[in-house]
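Please go through this protein, sequence plus C-alpha cells, and consider how the sequence yields the C-alpha cells. Keep your notes short.
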Amino acid sequence: MSIESIVKGGHSMLIDTHLHEKKFSEDSFISLEEIFERARELGLDGICITDHESNAIRAEATELSQKTGFLIITGAEILTLEGDMTVFGLDRLPEQRIHACELVQLTEAVGGVAICSHPYRQNNRGMGDSIRELPLVRGIETLNGSTPKHHNLQAYDLSLELQVAALGASDAHVIEQVGKFATWMPEWVKDENSFIQAVKKGSTLPAAYNNSSYEIFRNNLYAKAAS
C-alpha cells in the first residue's frame, strides 16, 4: 500500500480531530489553552477535544472558540465493548459500556457521526477487524499520533477497502504531540455540523506534520467525493 502526497503547506482546513484535555481526561497533561496555542502555532485551523467518556469541556471550549475565532469542536472518545470510537454530535453519552454498533446507532439517530479510533493499536482499545462487522462505518482514524506506523497503515488500508473517510489525529496527551497528525477538510467546515457532514461525505484526507508544514495524502474515496 502506498500513500500519495498531493499537497505540502497549502490547505483549506486542517483540524486535529482527537485531543485530550487534562480536566476531563486523567491521563492528559495539557490544558485547553495550551492545546489551542500550540495548534495555532502549527498553523492548524481547528481542534477537536475528545476526552475519555466525557464532553464536559464543551462550555469552556465554546467560550474560547468564540473569544479567539478559532474552531474548537467538542466530541468524546468512547470505549465500546469492541474498542474506541470518537463521537461527535452526541450530547448524551452512554452511562455504561456498550457495543460499537449501539454507539453508532445512538450517534446516527441524532445526526452525529462515530469514527473508529486507532483500530489496530495493540492495547485492547482498537476495534481491529471487527469494524467490518458494523452495519455502518462513516470514518476511520488512519493516522494516529500514539500508534505505530505499521498499525496506522493497516487502518489506512481498511479505510480504502471499506471506502470510508480517512482521518488523521494526534491523540495528544502531552504538548509535544499536538498536531502531529491532522485531517484536511474543505473550506466549508466551520462548525460541528459541517464537520460531521464532511466526514459523512468522505471529504477528508489524513495529514502529517513534516518540516514545518503539513503533508496531505490522497485516497480513492476523496477523489470520488470530489468528482
